[in-house]
């Protein structure tokens, strides 16, 4: 969410945010919006029982987003952040696998 509201210059000055110095403002804001939508898409459909099929779809999209983030952080040598991204990938993959196959919300 910080990518949506914090200016690019401040993000670039934060440890782990160096990648924003090489990205356009539009790209940074788009990533922020995608992250916010992913959080909403992972939680609300299941909680409200509205379109629960969106949870695993969102989880797959989150996997793709985090793989991209891991690649960017890896290129910058930020291996701690790569491991954070790998953790997010594992969690989202677990959700997608569980909701697509093992325990879908709809019977």
TrEMBL record:
InterPro entries: DoxX (IPR032808)
Domain of life: Bacteria
Residues spanning the membrane: 21-44, 50-72, 79-100
Subcellular location: Membrane
Membrane topology listed for this record: Multi-pass membrane protein
Keywords, sorted A to Z: Membrane, Transmembrane, Transmembrane helix
UniProt KW Metal-binding keyword: no
Membrane is among the record's keywords: yes
Protein name: DoxX family protein
């Amino acid at each position: 969410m910080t990518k949506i509201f914090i200016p690019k210059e401040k993000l670039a000055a934060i440890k782990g945010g160096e990648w924003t110095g090489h990205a356009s403002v539009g790209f940074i804001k788009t990533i922020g919006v995608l992250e916010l939508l992913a959080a909403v898409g992972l939680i609300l459909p299941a909680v409200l029982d509205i379109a629960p099929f969106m949870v695993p779809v969102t989880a797959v999209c989150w996997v793709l987003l985090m793989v991209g983030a891991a690649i960017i952080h890896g290129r910058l040598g930020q291996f701690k952040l790569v491991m954070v991204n790998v953790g997010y990938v594992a969690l989202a993959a677990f959700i997608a696998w569980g909701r697509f196959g093992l325990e879908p919300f709809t019977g």
